Fold this sequence. Notes:
PdxA, 2 domains, 12 strands, Isopropylmalate Dehydrogenase
Amino acid sequence: MAERKPVALSCGEPAGIGPEIAVKARGLLGRDLPFFWIGDPRHLPAGTDFTEIARPAEATEVPPDRLPVLPLAFAAPATPGVLNPANAAGVIAAIRRGVELVQAGEASAICTAPLHKKALKDGAGFAFPGHTEFLADLAGGADVVMMLAAPELRVVPVTIHIPLAEVPVALTSDLLERAIRITHAGLVRDFGLSAPRLAVAGLNPHAGEGGAMGHEDASVIAPVVTRLAAEGMAIFGPLPADTMFHPRARAAYDVAICMYHDQALIPIKTVNFDGGVNVTLGLPFVRTSPDHGTALDIAGRGIAEPSSLVAALRMAHEMATARGR
Length: 325
């Protein structure tokens, strides 16, 4: 049997809920899914049972009731709920270290706990909008897309963090085709789907209703779908978004390609708020993340829900296994 390599879990913002849900995830997963936490042990909840490791392979030997920790010294302790920009460089270093270990073949994948972008910018001049762009840069400028995934639904927003008024201008044929091709390749490579089915949402109500409610569906989206379908891709659309996400409709596709942020994220967070996973497709390594933020308002209170992190760790392992085949 091949060696079972653990998943690397970067600590994320130490003042947020990342440290406590890491401990909870270890308690829920035990030996079922080996992972190790990269961060400063001082930032773990008081009384946490952990074992320091020197290299990832040791994580599989740590008792299931203890958290394997690959220690990384930060500049300062952490107070739950209180940002300290002095720790920004450590947060960045933890991500970088996790990627290095995956690229070196010592870890199977990286799962990233939520970070706080303003703290990183204030404390370390972080020049990236978020994890995804930083990881793409670490991968040598990889062309990536963001996918949100749960057992019931996968969605990909073609445009992401831009004002709604800017979406029609940003939505070009090239951008749409790029997102679709990266998604298709990712579903084949990382999810084991030999012929993934892609449903493409329209931009406007009723997918434009023949031009009565906008021209982008006919002039931008439809030609891309037609061209890719002619190549043999199982793709259809543009579809009215308001009829795409009920259970019968979801059964007809493996991923929904959406035109803007809320068109993608509202459905998946409605269908499965706690179990959604953020996946970066297009990287030369597997990366997942829980689909929530740092939750500074509840950090340190012991009430943070670990379901999304558990799902992200499981999906990272499953994707790495599929890629390994």
